[in-house]
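Q: Please design a sequence for this.
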């Protein structure tokens, strides 16, 4: 079956016309929950370096990678460890990953795990640089999202979402060869992301698809989300959907195996754990009352992680 490719809006983060950018973001988030972000301040060379280093890490012998096995959501997760959609596949996803968490929160920074310097020299500073640059782009983007919701630019700072930024960087590797199997294997099975927004970069190998229909609607119709050199693919996460009472959509997406090795790097902008996510009054009305009770971000994320890694 052939899949259509979706034509997503492109947002220029360097535009001086923030009102017009905010309007475009609003449209994109209502219609798709996905858009491309360009002129975001992360240079092509840094993308290239991060993808090289990601490849170096995943090429290490499994026993070296397993020494950094995921703890406190930091470190390495091997192939088939994770299942985002138990309904569609009982085998986990065909991907391995490596998480880097907050660099700014003093209580969290020491939880990060790093490959030893003698095995992968200068790996850590490269990832830290990338982390900081994407976080800075993400913060600018979130202020535009606030404007897009007719809120003050610093709304998400004021509600405590960003005071101890909880960005989670995730390197992903989808192997090209799957071997034979009698059940459908996904790179990443259908899911929506948990946080505010995700900024995704890839090595250009296709596979990412999104379903823009209502999450509960069957059958699902999948459309390819193509890579654009130098652009982030941005998607809205579930906590932003809750804030906006479903005005902004947290869209289902998945990664299909493409028969070629895919590398991607996702940056999840999650609200600070103590931030309470509560439907915005401006997104509720008598006809459309709040669909979600307030939730503490940390509790919500823990529960989502628990379900993802349940075996
Ligand atoms: O690798 C990709 O392109 C998407 C990854 C993704 O959706 C995720 O990790 O949440
Ligand atoms: Fe995702």
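A: Design:
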């Amino acid at each position: 079956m052939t899949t259509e490719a979706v034509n997503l809006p492109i947002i220029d983060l360097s535009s001086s016309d923030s009102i017009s950018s905010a309007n475009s973001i609003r449209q994109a988030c209502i219609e798709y929950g996905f858009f491309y972000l360009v002129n975001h301040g992360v240079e092509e060379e840094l993308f290239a370096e991060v993808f090289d280093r990601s490849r170096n890490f995943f090429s290490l012998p499994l026993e070296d990678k397993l020494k950094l096995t995921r703890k406190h959501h930091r470190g390495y997760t091997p192939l088939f460890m994770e299942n985002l959609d138990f309904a569609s596949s009982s085998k986990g996803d065909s991907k391995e990953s490596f998480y880097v968490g907050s660099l700014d929160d003093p209580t969290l920074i020491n939880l990060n795990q790093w490959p030893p310097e003698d095995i992968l020299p200068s790996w850590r500073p490269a990832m830290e640089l990338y982390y900081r640059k994407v976080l800075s782009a993400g913060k600018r983007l979130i202020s535009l999202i606030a404007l897009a919701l007719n809120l003050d630019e610093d709304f998400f700072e004021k509600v405590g979402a960003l005071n101890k930024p909880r960005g989670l960087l995730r390197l992903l590797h989808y192997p090209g060869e799957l071997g034979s199997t009698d059940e459908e294997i996904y790179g990443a099975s259908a899911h929506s992301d948990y946080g505010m927004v995700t900024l995704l970069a890839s090595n250009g190998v296709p596979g990412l698809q999104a379903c823009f229909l209502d999450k509960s609607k069957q059958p699902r119709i999948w459309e390819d989300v193509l890579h654009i050199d130098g652009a982030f693919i941005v998607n809205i996460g579930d906590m932003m959907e809750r804030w906006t009472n479903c005005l902004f959509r947290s869209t289902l997406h998945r990664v299909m195996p493409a028969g070629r090795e895919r590398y991607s790097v996702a940056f999840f902008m999650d609200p600070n754990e103590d931030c309470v996510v509560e439907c915005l009054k401006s997104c509720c009305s008598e006809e459309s009352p709040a669909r979600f009770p307030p939730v503490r971000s940390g509790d919500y994320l823990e529960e989502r992680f628990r379900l993802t890694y349940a075996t």
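Q: Thanks. Anything notable?
A: The helical segments are 18-31, 44-58, 62-66, 123-148, 155-158, 238-243, 297-308. Residues 10-308 form a domain with the Jelly Rolls fold (CATH 2.60.120.330).
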